Amino acid sequence: MIVCICRARTDRDVLRAIEDGAASLRDVQRCGIGTDCGTCHNMLQLMLAASEEPAAACPAPVLVPATYATSA
């Protein structure tokens, strides 16, 4: 999805910048994203905030014993 229209940057570009260490709007702008009109700044802030949230732990799988029918 295009996030920054002025620079034709996608959500993947933004995520790549975050993975490479961008932790603020200014850091993302140093990567050439969001430096013109500013329309994308809200989305960039949301993406930065989402990257700071700890990943939800996956619950342990529930093991259900298998039931086998036996025929006589």
User: How are the strands of the biggest sheet laid out side by side?
Assistant: 1-2
Shape: globular
Q: Helical residue percent? A: 25-40%
With helices defined by DSSP (H or I, 4 residues minimum), what is the helix count? 3
Rounded mean pLDDT score: 83
- The SSE order reads EEHHH
**Radius of gyration over C-alpha positions, nearest whole angstrom:** 21 Å
**Computed structural class:** mainly alpha
First-last Cα distance: 60 Å
Total strands? 2
Beta-strand share of residues:
5-15%
What about the largest sheet? Answer: 2 strands, antiparallel
- Ranges where pLDDT stays below 50 over 5 or more residues in a row are none
Task: List descriptors.
single chain; mainly alpha; 38% helix; two-stranded antiparallel ribbon; 72 residues
List strands and helices in order, with pairings:
Blueprint lengths: L1 E3 L4 E2 H9 L5 H6 L10 H12 L20
Antiparallel strand pairs: 1-2
Overview in brief:
By secondary structure, the protein is mainly alpha-helical. It has three helices and two strands, in the order ββααα. The chain is 38% helix and 7% strand.
How would you describe this structure to a colleague?
By secondary structure, the protein is mainly α. It contains three helices and two strands; from the N terminus they run E-E-H-H-H. It is globular. A hairpin with a 4-residue loop joins strand 1 and strand 2. It has a two-stranded antiparallel sheet.
